[in-house]
Write a structure and sequence with these properties.
250 residues; alpha/beta; Rossmann fold; 7 helices; 14 strands
């Protein structure tokens, strides 16, 4: 029986915004289609298991990013090969920033990125806080943004979502963009955690992993989680239109 292998990378250091919920949702979306999965937690200095299908990396403050930085950079070639092999990667917040080419800090210093995703990041003093809705080619996404960074894409074709409400992470023509996709690597700044709120986005990730394995996924069995997600999404949509959030200046 084919299983989908999931890894949560740096769960202790990069998991401050409910990132375990993203992993749990991937497990649940696979289970709803009758596909078994295994999940491993991999920390600093620990090797990735063989033949991983999905890697999930969460969010953390700058201090946590510095703590995993050397180990993360040491994995650059492995992650580059992982993405080139059409495996699935999902990263949110600080880890997504580190996957890019460089992070420029507000004090003039910079942190070298892993360099496997096509953008640079500039930290700013303008913090973006509030509900956000995003339209991607595959799914409408809702969630919460809380970051102080502006991304500059070095490959415009990697822009994945257009912001409908909220501020997003980068400029996309006359609009704002959120989420970057390179092959089957999807990264962004939407929290929540985002996948429990957006089963359709989780389905994009598990479908990509299954397709690489040659699995034909059946429709998902209805689950109470779907109703919970719909209720939360509906509430956020109301807040987006009825309740404004002011930017926090740092």
């Amino acid at each position: 029986m084919t299983q989908i292998s999931i890894v949560q990378l740096y769960p202790a250091e990069l998991g401050i915004t409910g990132d375990r919920g993203n992993v749990r949702t991937l497990e649940e979306r696979l289970r709803a289609r009758g596909v078994a999965s295994t999940t491993a937690h991999v920390g600093v200095g620990e090797p990735l298991p063989e033949d991983v299908d999905i890697v999930v990396i969460g969010n953390g403050p700058l201090s946590a990013l510095r703590g995993v930085h050397a180990d993360f950079v040491a994995r650059a070639q492995q992650l580059r090969s992982f993405i080139a092999d059409e495996r699935t990667l999902f990263a949110i917040g600080g880890s997504a920033e580190l996957l890019g080419e460089r992070i420029d800090l507000t004090d003039g210093d910079s942190v070298d990125g892993v360099g496997v995703m096509p953008y640079r990041v500039s930290r700013t003093r303008d913090r973006r806080v509030g509900y956000i809705t995003v339209r991607t080619p595959d799914a409408a996404v809702v969630g919460f943004e809380d970051h102080a960074s502006e991304w500059t894409l070095t490959d415009e074709s990697a822009a994945y979502g257009t912001v409908v409400a909220g501020r997003g992470s980068y400029s996309r023509g006359d609009a704002r963009g959120e989420f970057v996709r390179h092959r089957n690597a999807v990264v962004g700044n939407v929290q929540g955690p985002v996948l429990p709120l957006n089963p359709a986005l989780a389905d994009v990730l598990v479908s990509a992993a299954a397709a690489r394995r040659g699995l034909d996924l059946p429709d998902a069995t209805p689950s109470p989680f779907d109703e919970y997600a719909k209720g939360a999404r509906d509430a956020i949509e109301r807040f987006v239109h009825d309740k404004g959030f002011k930017t926090i200046q740092l």
